[in-house]
Design a protein that fits this description.
It is a single chain. The chain is α/β, with parallel strands linked by helices. Helix content is 41%, strand content 19%. The protein has 14 helices and twelve strands. The protein is flat. The two termini are 23 Å apart.
């Protein structure tokens, strides 16, 4: 498990440049005209985690296998997309399939790069895209409502559960508010998620800055931060053009030198991934041994059998116990043998809630 994040925004804000940088490929064509991306491009990228290299060094692992994230580069939306403008509903349907929305906003001035709205205003751009997504959700719900009402009257349990949720979402959307503002009880979450509302998905705003302002930000990115703060949404500042250059450097040392020259501590990808993890409530556990050190992604709050199931369904079905040690204890004790000698290695049962960075070894029987 990782997370699938759809990269959205108006044309020419830097979506495909960011996608290319994230995946270090040229799979998505980045060009100075709208709709250069005509199919959603999908790329998987490794999650950077320096803990993994330290674990592998102690265990003398032959290889390391990081967990992965999936990014989908979706063609630029424009005003009127919900009614089919530009490439319209074709791309709105692609957004329904992702877990979260990475909304790229142009926060740089450049007369050589055209803007579909005639000028740079990231808050306006965000409102345009959000409006189109809300209109698409509203249209979808209003089409489904009569059938939902009919089934609910007929005693269909699923329809009876979904009908009030759909009505709440319609009321919010008609008031100009995204569906993510709905108050949904835990027992209704599955029914809510089945409706696949675009504006119910969590949003991460990405401010695309010029190289000279990548470290400091500017007044445009400050406006985005104020908007996002009011929504309770995270923001990452990034210079997609810089990330593209970093992706072409062959060694970590070269990347570090390049970053130091422009006043940055780490690539924007790292911050993007960390924000994405927090946004979706994800965390990492590790399996460590001489053959490989591998990272796995699970939801925060997952119990040991769920974590085992990420590796293989048989592990979850036949779960007996999990041998575990925290990352800090594993490092402090110099590895598995030291952790066992210090009494830090322990056995946990099916109710154990896995913690970020845990090293786990599962015992199971099928």
């Amino acid at each position: 498990m990782g997370f699938t994040c759809g990269i959205v925004g108006l044309p020419n804000v830097g979506k495909s440049t960011l996608f290319n940088a994230l995946t270090a490929t040229a799979a998505a064509q980045a060009a100075n005209y709208p709709f250069c991306t005509i199919e959603p491009n999908v790329g998987k990228v490794a999650v950077p985690d320096d803990r993994q290299d330290k674990l592998a060094a102690l265990a003398k692992s032959l290889r390391t296998l990081p967990t992965q994230l999936e990014f989908v580069d979706i063609a630029g939306l424009v005003r009127g997309a919900a009614e089919g403008a530009g490439l319209g509903n074709k791309f709105l349907s692609h957004i329904r399939e992702v877990d979260a929305i990475c909304h790229v906003l142009r926060c740089f001035e450049n007369g050589d790069v055209t803007h579909v709205e005639g000028g740079v205003d990231p808050v306006r751009d965000a409102e345009i895209v959000e409006t189109e997504l809300m209109l698409a959700d509203l249209e979808s719900l209003e089409k489904r409502l009569p059938a939902l009402e009919k089934r609910a009257k007929g005693g269909d349990d699923i329809a009876k559960a979904q009908l009030p949720l759909a009505q709440q979402a319609i009321a919010l959307l008609n008031a100009g508010k995204p569906a993510r503002q709905a108050k949904i009880a835990n027992e209704d979450l599955d029914y809510w998620n089945q409706m696949q509302l675009i504006t119910a998905k969590p949003v991460l705003y990405v401010c695309n800055l010029s190289e000279s302002e990548a470290a400091s930000g500017n007044t445009l990115s400050e406006k985005v931060m104020a908007m996002a703060s009011a929504q309770g949404a995270p923001v990452v500042t990034i210079a997609a053009a810089i990330e593209s250059e970093i992706a072409q450097l062959s060694s970590v040392e070269e990347q570090e030198m390049f970053l130091a020259e422009i006043g940055l501590q780490e690539p924007g990808l790292n911050r993007l991934v960390q924000s994405g993890y927090r946004l979706l409530g994800l965390q990492t556990f590790f399996t460590v041994g001489p053959k490989e050190t591998r990272a796995w992604t699970i939801p925060i709050g997952a119990r040991a059998p769920q974590a085992a199931g990420v590796i293989h369904t048989d592990f979850e079905r036949g779960f007996i116990a999990a041998e575990t040690v925290s990352y800090d204890d594993y490092i402090a004790c110099g590895g598995e043998a030291g952790a066992k000698a210090a009494g830090k290695w322990r056995t946990e049962g099916k109710d154990y809630v896995v913690q970020d960075g845990d090293i786990l070894l599962f015992r199971f029987n099928v």
